[in-house]
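Entry for the shared binder. Reason: the reviewer on the internal report wants the predicted structure included alongside the sequence.
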Amino acid sequence: MTTQNPGLFPGLFIAFEGGDGAGKSTQAAELAGALESRGLTVLRTREPGGTPIGEILRSLVLDHGHGHIDAHTEALIFAASRAAHASQVIRPALQRGEIVLTDRYIDSSVAYQGAGRDLGTDAVRDLNEWATAGLQPDLTVLLDVDPALGRRRRTAGEAAEDRLESEADDFHTRIRAAFLDLAAARPETYLVLPAHLPVRELAAHILGRVDSLLSRPHSRTA
């Protein structure tokens, strides 16, 4: 399979990954604010979702009340949502020279369906690389969260867990291990941070790594 590195585009593509309750959306918002304050154009998006059809698929796969969803169907729904997201949202934004921040990307399917559902990480990765035409992030920020901490965060106050969040702790333990394995295999494209650190400290680490990417000479063509 041919991998399309986003370095071919004038924009910058950053994915935030980690288990449920890791603080991905919080850190994406912190980074977006810091970059926008410099006059940079930032697109924040999420998976599953990010497009009209993706949001419908998000509801089907995450909300309770849609009946049993087997593991293969679940993986295909996520891949379908991601295909639309990459084609309709991410790639056009990169071609416009924007900085794209996505809350979850391919690694989430590899971890959740490949490892968590035991479908096989290689099979799920291949499916999603095909769905996205090989589009990969310039940087993946992995917020490593202990499953117990993640659950405490998710259930704080009146919050209710979605269909995947409510899975047993051993499911989330397998997911955590899979994320760490992915980062260990390609350390040059990952920033792994412990999710229990204070929000501002995490944000400073992330911005520092992004600044190093932004300072590199770009020879990108759409």
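Summary line for the report: Residues 150 and 156 are 10 Å apart (CA to CA).
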